[in-house]
Amino acid sequence: MKIAIIYASFNEQIVKNLLKGALQFLKEEKIDKKNIKIIEVPGVFEIPLMCKKLTKTKKYDGIITLGCIIKGQTEHYDMLCQTVTDSLMQIMLEYELPIIFEILMVHDIKYAIARTSLKNWNENKGYTGARTLLEVIRNK
Predict the structure, then answer these.
(1) Most CB contacts within 10 A, which of 16, 27, 91, 124?
(2) What's the pLDDT tens digit per position in 9-33?
(3) Is 76 a catalytic residue?
């Protein structure tokens, strides 16, 4: 099984915890590290392009996307949330490849922190996202 993880480095500590969670679950499932490709992009806006590039290679059984958008005082939040969501859904349906969406969209950093626990893996969205991906792949 080959898995790709694309993560946005913006809001770095939150996203690093998501990545740790995803890798923890894959380790528990004994997915060999050599079968996991990890790609960093600057922000969530770049995730769909990288997803499409990886999908076209037909090398992966699924992709996990990780990022964090925190609402500010502009409409930037709304535009990013909608654009990234729609783009990833379109790629997933076009290529019929599971793309797990674990891009946190929160109004306050405290909500992001609550979803990236390193003490209780079931509260870490990276961990649960990796679990979801394997469930989808195994049910193909």
Answers:
(1) 124
(2) 988 889 999 999 999 999 999 999 9
(3) yes
